[in-house]
Amino acid sequence: MGTHAQPQQPHPVVVGVSAGQPPQVVEQAAEFAARFGTELVCAHVNPGRFATAESPDGSVLTAPLDPDFADEHDAAFDARIAAGLAELLDGSEIPWRTLALAGDVPTALAHLADTVDASMIIVGGHAHTLGGNIQDFFTGSVALALTRRQSRPVVVIPTHSGGDAALSRPLE
Q1: How far is the CA of 117 from the CAs of 14, 23, 75, in angstroms?
Q2: Tens-place pLDDT, residues 88-143
Q3: Cβ contact 112:58 at 8 Å
Q4: What is the CA angle 110-111-114, rounded to 5?
Q5: Closest C-alpha to 98, from 58, 71, 125, 61
Q6: pLDDT tens string 144-172
Q7: Residue 42, SS3?
Q8: Helices (H), 14-172
Q9: Closest-CA residue to 10 (of 154, 138, 119, 161)
Q10: How many CB atoms lie within 10 A of CB 64?
């Protein structure tokens, strides 16, 4: 968990983050958090692990699905993504923190949102590419799965390149 936030604030904004994600997803999530006067919770879900225990702040202890390939570094929040988030968010007015989650991505994000009583969940949309469409076919869209099982708002930030966004570096 990151240490950039003050004590947990009511109704945070939860944003799903992943390696290679365009920065505009987190930037827009930070704008929502600032408008609502609450914290931003940046959650990365590792589908190769499962939760074994949970804290009231949404943080989890995890174990690998396959113990033969256990790597305890996978239990922590990805350092490269954390560095990208720090570059985007340090110096901003909003409190923010990171959480490493485990399991099915939409399920983990929905459960986190319920646990922290989030005001909304924000995810990035897939670019319309052949690779993105095939990925959606086999794994399903996180945004679509969230909208089907979540009672709180789900905001999908377009991630297609265009304008100044094309100049931004994706999260590592």
Answers
A1: 10, 25, 24
A2: 998 888 999 999 998 889 999 999 999 999 999 999 986 555 555 444 444 458 88
A3: yes
A4: 90
A5: 58
A6: 888 888 889 999 998 865 544 433 456 66
A7: strand
A8: 24-36, 79-89, 105-116, 130-139, 142-149
A9: 119
A10: 17
